[in-house]
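Bumping my old thread because nobody answered last time. Still need a sequence for this structure:
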């Protein structure tokens, strides 16, 4: 790697790369955006952001030669929004085969009165399992969500849930792979706390 960094952000083509970088800067974290498999494989921590569609991001990661690199990472990994969804086995969006790290599928929200799709706005978490990733975060904290698809409920990897027409996993962890459905870089103090917790994972 070109310099010592605390975290490498995968260049997944998402529009939130800049805001994520600013959030890391505010925490004093040294970060680098990269699509180089060697850089990502040697990183102390990896952030996998995602904005857009599941099929598009998986195609981009495959073109960059990153599929096996991501699946084999041993360092702490945090998938954000779509980056969390593609940690699963399959997404109904574009009928996409994903990374298959977290057993389970991704489904689209059903259209229901009072719950328009996409789910867009601030929601709180219902923590179901304690984890260092959620240290200092409670049911009074708000996080910002923007998504039309969600992980299926009942996953063993679930750390916290959120309700929006249905209850769905909002935070998951499978070994060293973590995921959040919301955008911590847009979630004020609570989002900063979660990112800081991730940066302390080893």
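Sorry it took so long. Here it is:
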């Amino acid at each position: 790697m070109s310099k010592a960094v605390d975290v490498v952000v995968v260049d997944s083509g998402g529009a939130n790369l800049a805001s994520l970088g600013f959030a890391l800067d505010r925490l004093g974290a040294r970060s680098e955006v990269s699509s180089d498999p060697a850089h990502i494989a040697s990183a102390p921590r990896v952030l996998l952001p995602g904005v857009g569609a599941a099929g598009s991001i998986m195609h981009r990661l495959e073109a960059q030669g990153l599929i096996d690199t991501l699946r084999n990472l041993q360092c702490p990994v945090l998938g954000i929004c779509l980056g969390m969804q593609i940690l699963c086995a399959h997404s109904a969006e574009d009928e996409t085969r994903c990374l298959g790290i977290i057993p389970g599928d991704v489904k689209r929200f059903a259209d229901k009165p009072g719950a328009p799709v996409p789910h867009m706005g601030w929601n709180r978490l219902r923590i179901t399992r304690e984890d260092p990733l959620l240290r200092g975060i409670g049911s009074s904290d708000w996080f910002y969500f923007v998504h039309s698809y969600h992980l299926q409920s009942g996953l063993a990897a679930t750390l916290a849930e959120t309700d929006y027409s249905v209850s769905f996993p909002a935070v998951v962890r499978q070994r060293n792979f973590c995921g959040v459905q919301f955008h911590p870089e847009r979630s004020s103090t609570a989002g900063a706390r979660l990112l800081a917790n991730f940066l302390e994972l080893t």
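The longest strand covers residues 166-174. Let me know if any region looks off to you.
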